[in-house]
Amino acid sequence: MSMNLEREKTSLPAAQLPNAKSSSLPKLLFYGTVISMLASLYFIFIFAEEEKTMGAAQKIFYFHVSSAWVAFFAFFVTCVLSILFLIKRKRIFDTYAYVSAEIGVVFTLIVLTTGPIWAKSAWNTWWVWEPRLITTLILFFIYIAYIMIRHMDGVWDKKARLAAVFGIIGFVDVPIVFFAIRWWQTKLHPIVFGEGQNQSGGGIAPTMLVALLVSIAAFTVLFAYLLNKGVTVENMKLKVEQYKEKIRESLDK
Amino acid sequence: MNLFSSALLLAKKDLLSELKTKQILVTQIIFAALVIVVFSFAFDPANNTTKAVIPGVIWVIIVFAGILGLNRSFISEQRNDTMQGLLVAPMEAASIFLGKFFANFTMILIVEIVSIPFLFLLFDFKMTGSIAYFILVIFVGSFGFVSIGTFLAALAANSKSSEMLLPLLLFPITSPILIGVTQATRIILSDMSKLSSALAWTQMVTAYDVIFFVVALLLIDYVLEV
Questions:
Q1: Best of B79, B80, B147, B155 to disrupt the A interface by mutation (most A CBs within 10 Å)?
Q2: With an 8 Å Cβ cutoff, is A161 touching chain B?
Q3: Which residues contact A67 (CB under 8 A, 6 or more apart)?
Q4: Contacts of B83 in chain A (CB under 8 A)
Q5: Which residues contact B169 (CB under 8 A, 6 or more apart)?
Q6: What ipTM was estimated for this complex?
Q7: Contact residues, chain A, for B184 at CB < 8 Å
Q8: Contacts of residue B176 in chain A, CB cutoff 8 Å?
Q9: Residue A5 has what pLDDT?
Q10: Do A152 and B159 touch (CB under 8 A)?
Q11: CA nearest neighbour of B159 among B74, B89, B93, B98
Q12: DSSP bridge partners of A55
């Protein structure tokens, strides 16, 4: 791998970076996030009826499920863009995949934090070694490993390639997280949606469903905003790196 | 040369060089024995409840001994830059993966054949279940673990600290397999009345093996790019 070491030392190729356009998209996403978040708060706390047995503690359910949705969606985006990167080899796909994975890890952490808070009041225990919890935890570790590959030493295209491969492999685990509850047949985790024998679940009141859908939409807009911002920051980092390289070259002369 | 014959040639090369040095295999077997000794401190072998942890101990041995061998399988190719030689050789990347997989799989099977009877002997474990099913579960579990392990070892070998990176990549990805096989092993070793449940676990692990083996074969081209 000595070849890679040599390439590491050589200067960065002047990649064609998109010039920073003054687009209105980040602003639009920002205000969209603020408005939809406020709306979801209204729907969660005022519009939706209170759960009979769990009371106010059940309200965390909306953020829990929305975060889980965003986490899975983020990993899905990572997987799709990883495949795109392996085919097209454009750096922008790689940046999007990386930022999306980072956001996914943050939201998985939110799921793993809000879950125990809710579980303490509903199941009277912080953590249960139950399949869906375990698999979510494993998912978290998989994407921590993904980020560790990104922080490996070496040239970027090698890291990007390996991370893309791992992003695809890791995503194979996501459906298993979702279907774990059906495969491993547990009685503890409430199945809210779904049908079939013994899988009918507890169901959900219509007002709650509205609140849930609104908060999921709000979190999706938040995801879009974070993704946009993250990619901008990554591109800025790249630009700074290139300017540094230019200065270094001019100093060497 | 087609995919398999070059893979077998590569596996033969690895196994012959292993036979010459005996570096990895001896380390793996001694390590497995040490794990058993450490477990005898942690769980009193004279105690009857210890029988319950035997299935877990079997898989801890396989996983830890296996990861020692997996770490070496691609690192050893880097010392003289022989990896470049393999990559420019007229064969596909999938052949390199398959060859490495066959070599690693053979080695882990040898470790299992030596260490599992040794474990049963030292912990005075009397098997009540069926040996054929037990071998099937061990085989299916090791197959999945080694195939993904070989793939991720190829991936991690690009890092300077691959020995540290590989377990972090490997354990979360293989955990569904490990959950499945420990459950299946526990049922088969102690309670044969729930055999259908053990077979369901084995099927799940087999499905996993197939999925990840195919994914690994498809993606290995991108991992082993120069």
A1: B155
A2: yes
A3: A107, A108, A110, A111, A114, A219
A4: 1
A5: A145, A148, A149, A166, B152, B155, B156
A6: 0.85
A7: none
A8: 135, 138, 173, 176
A9: 47
A10: yes
A11: B74
A12: A51
Mean of all residue pLDDT scores within chain B: 88
- Specify whether the CB–CB gap between A61 and A250 falls below 8 A: no
Q: Smallest Cβ distance to A145: which of B160, B172, B179?
A: B172
Among B158, B197, B224, B225, the strongest candidate for a mutation testing the A interface, having the largest count of A CBs within 10 A, is B158
Question: Which position has the token pair 């995919």?
Answer: B3
Chain B's closest residue to A170, CA to CA, is: B173
Instruction: Give B148-191 as a DSSP string.
Output: HHHHHHHHHTTSTTHHHHHHHHHHHHHHHHHHHHHHHHHHHHH-
Rounded Cα distance between B166 and B157, Å, is 8
Dig out the tokens for A184 from the structure.
Answer: 């491993």
Distance from CA of B184 to the nearest CA of A (A): 13
Range with the lowest mean pLDDT among A180-189, A240-249, B54-63, B182-191?
A180-189
Query: Which distant-in-sequence residues (6+ apart) come within 8 Å of B166 by Cβ?
Result: B67, B70, B71, B149, B152, B153, B156
Residue A51: beta bridge partners? A55
Query: Smallest Cα–Cα separation from B212: which of A185, A184, A183, A165?
Result: A165
Q: What is the DSSP letter of B200?
A: H
Dist CA B133 CA B120 (whole Å):
17
Q: What is the DSSP letter of B52?
A: G
For residue B225, the chain A residues in CB contact (below 8 A) are 161
Q: What is A113-161 written as a DSSP string?
A: HHHHHHHHHHTSSS----HHHHHHHHHHHHHHHHHHHHTSSS-HHHHHH
**Helices B23-42 & B54-75 angle (0-180, nearest 10):** 150
pLDDT tens profile A54-72: 677 778 888 898 999 999 8
Q: Which residues of A touch B169 (CB under 8 A)?
A: 145, 148-149, 166
Residue boundaries of the structural domains of chain B = 3-223
Residue B173 touches partner A, C-beta closer than 8 Å: yes
Whole-structure pTM value = 0.85
